[in-house]
Amino acid sequence: MTETTEATTTVVKIDAAGVSHRDLNAKLREAVANGAQKIELRNVHGQRYIGTDLNKPVEIDIFGTPGNDLGSFMDGPRITVHGNAQDGCGNTMNNGLIVVHGHAGDIIGLSARGGKIFVKDDIGYRAGIHMKEYGEKKPVLVVGGTAQDFLGEYMAGGILVLLGLHLEEGQRHKAKFVGTGMHGGVIYLRGDIEQYQLGKEVGIAEPDEKDLQDLQRLVGEFSSYFGYDAGKILENRFVKLFPKYLRPYGRLYAY
Amino acid sequence: MKTYLPARFLVERNAERCIRCKVCTNQCSFDVHSYDSEEDCIQSREENCVGCHRCVIFCPTRAITIRKNPLEYRENYNWRPEVIEDIIKQAETGGVLLTGMGDDKAQRIYWDHLVLNASQVTNPSIDPLREPMELTTFLGRKPDRVELSDDLSLKTEIAPQVKLEVPVMFAAMSYGAVSLHVQESLARAATEAGTLWNTGEGGLHPRLYKYGKNTIVQVASGRFGVHAEYLNAGAVVEIKIGQGAKPGIGGHLPGEKVSAEVSRTRMIPEGTDALSPAPQHDIYSIEDLSQLIYALKEATNYTKPISVKIAAVHNSAAIASGIVRAGADIVVLDGLRGATGAAPKVIRDNVGIPIEMALASVDARLRQEGIRNQASIVISGGIRSAGDVAKAIALGADAVNIGTAALIALGCTVCQQCHTGKCAWGICTSDLFLTKRINPDIGAERVYNLLRGWSVELKDIMGGLGVNAVESLRGNRHHLRGIGLTDTELNILGVQMAGS
Ligand code: SF4
Ligand code: SF4
Question: Which of residues 186-245 of A touch B (CB under 8 A)?
């Protein structure tokens, strides 16, 4: 571990080569406890759970490929991945930021209650399942590319955005079973999707004034991380997916 | 549609005793009693009565008797009244039949077919009134072997353990399913008795954080109220995969029960349904389970045992082996009779296996594989008495969880209406008028008394067996004999027939 002090921020550099996830997280904990404000992790090769129990707004820059459950249960850190993220990124996250300069795997943002995740390219299956919101807390997942099946299943809150930046002219998003059991939150798609790809609890609408404001803000933030022109992205048509019923299973039971 | 459902109970009011004080009209939350001012008498809508006996106990002149409506249908072993009435209810609603509490059917209760031994002549029994008796139990992973340094200090690193003064804990009951007063009663009783209560999957109300040392915090598929502070508040973190009352299905806490306070604890908006999906979508395999176990270990910096709770099902033994190998420190098995705040009746009464069989096979399997020390086994699902506890420990359990028994201590009469949210005993409801019926001061005392009584009884049983520590009873099936069981049953239970 080497420490340098840049002006007023304390930067800690950690070489993760050959370090187990347990030891790596112990080092992170120690660095944060010692007041590190910025941490650079080099040579990360699949170590899991990075940032899991850190509850300070420390900045973590990851070079290499972090393993599963990056930032799970996380409560405040700001993580930037200079590469791809694997499965379970932001699992049950409470607060903080994850920016992935590449792809991310399955179940990204599962059950997240707060915080923001931005992914430059595509994400895998089961993204944003059971995302929920509460009071001020509203999780956000913005994806530059597209997603696989079961996107936003059981979604109970928060905002999910797929920008479809890599879709060819006339190509649709391919995810199926989108929003099955959805009973809260909203999904915005840039690019088309057919009714049959959606769960039966999901409605399609044109974004309204308020939606467009949210989109402007989120696409703006997305573009600032990855160097896109937000205005250009926003020129295209967006569709809004919303829960048709707040209580999709209300009429299921006999008392 | 006219309902063809007959009244289940008859409400009889002794007119001579009734003083028209209207206590019953206030106490009944199912709208049975009402005061008729013209006639100056109390009327009953018997069809609403669920037989919870709240009015019977609170009537100051003991004027009320609740009797089963005899309903003399023609005798039919197949088409019993319950079967007929279930069909009628579905014909009128088209819905899934919901119910509360545990399986009430007549499947064999193996505890009642097991008997304990006692010392006679050849080895003396121990008098617990004179001799120290040890019920202390440690839950958590035990090392394969212990090494000492030269100065005799412990060299082996010991995984985190939690200490129980009595091997009986309270089963997971979430805030929302039961009221905050119930949780507070359990938390305080657990603190006093030196055992643990369990949040269930509804988060931890800020008022109960102070009981953290005696709390198991649960992480289930809904992940309600789960955040770092919550995970670190408890003594144990439990991953809930399944529940004996409803193996393999999720849960729906109806919006009506998500009050302002429940919403605060679950961290979801007021009035929305709290849907817990059937699987945890980050767990599709033992490898995925291991990933969550270690995520939770990381999130709590390896300071707490991680428990995994499953429903007892056909392959429990193999699954439990996988759970232990995945890194769990405690395995919880919840049997066929495990109770619930709400479950489809068809699942409750037909899915899962008896806890006695699951426990015997899991304990045997872990021993065969040489990994029994790596995790503690906790069982639940219908434990009724210290006798059941002693038998469970002899069959291989480290500790048991009690849910229904603890609620009965609080007043529950097992009327199975928990799913309606109208519990007249104020237990499983979030109606503020009803929840006041549980006073945590009295509730804690009642539940603590139960544990105290069971502890003394356990010591009596152990003394009779000639053992002075619960450790010596654990997994010692020689202390058990079976009665009225087939060879196959005895074989699975790993006990001999009485007389042999
Ligand atoms: S209080 Fe219970 S037993 Fe008495 S009438 Fe109401 S439902 Fe029936
Ligand atoms: S908790 Fe209440 S509703 Fe449920 S069985 Fe007991 S008395 Fe009846």
Answer: none
